[in-house]
Design goal:
The protein has a domain at 68-132. 28% of the residues lie in helices and 6% in strands. Mean pLDDT is 75; it is low at 1-31 and 175-185. It has four helices and two strands; from the N terminus they run ββαααα. With 185 residues, the chain is mainly α. The protein has helices spanning 48-58, 78-94, 101-118, 168-173; strands at residues 5-10, 13-18. Helix 2 (78-94) packs antiparallel against helix 3 (101-118).
């Protein structure tokens, strides 16, 4: 379709499927010529609510006292929804790693986000005795300049592409230096 979505019947209804180009300029499910298609693993948890139910059963911390706060109606807090959704996505990806995937999930994702969410000054502040009818307001900002909202048309490199040498010293010496935010070892 012209709008970048392909309607396909699912469970008797029409559901839009995103066919927008991915970072390499091809739809996410497009395969390079000659490569066998790898099956996409199904999510272990079928919904955000199902994942949150599991997470809140296994991640146990005391919320008595002043150090930690949790809202039993977490879904009414946009930051909590965004963080638990991010945890769900990380879980679904990392559970497929038979080695250290789940350890990485707990250490780098669950512990971090849950600590932030449960913090007494976190998104549940004011919900010490149940959901507050006065949730925290968004952080105030002045109107940013319009240039910050212009679409960035630079292409993303393919996942396996090495970054170019970033310094004159590296160019002279022939040694490629990685940027500080590189995820590769």
């Amino acid at each position: 379709m012209a709008d970048g979505h392909d309607a396909s019947p699912v469970d008797g209804g029409n559901v839009a499927r995103d066919v927008s180009p991915g970072p390499n300029g091809h739809p996410p499910d497009a395969q390079a010529a000659g490569e066998p298609a790898e099956p996409t693993p199904a999510c272990y948890y079928g919904s955000l609510g199902e994942f949150a139910g599991w997470l809140l059963q296994v991640y146990r911390r005391s919320t008595r006292g002043q150090a930690r706060v949790f809202c039993p109606q977490w879904w009414k807090h946009p930051e909590a929804v965004a963080r638990i959704d991010a945890l769900w996505r990380a879980f679904e990806q990392l559970r497929q790693d038979p080695g250290t995937g789940m350890s990485v999930f707990w250490r780098d994702h669950a512990d971090h986000h849950m600590t932030v969410m449960l913090d007494a000054d976190g998104p549940f502040k004011g919900c010490e005795d149940g959901h507050s009818t006065h949730p925290l307001e968004p952080i105030h900002q002045d109107e940013p300049p319009a240039v910050l909202f212009q679409r960035d048309l630079r292409a993303m490199p393919d996942a396996g592409t090495e970054p170019p040498a970033t310094t004159a010293l590296a160019q002279r010496s022939g040694v490629a230096q990685r940027p500080h935010n590189s995820l590769r070892p």
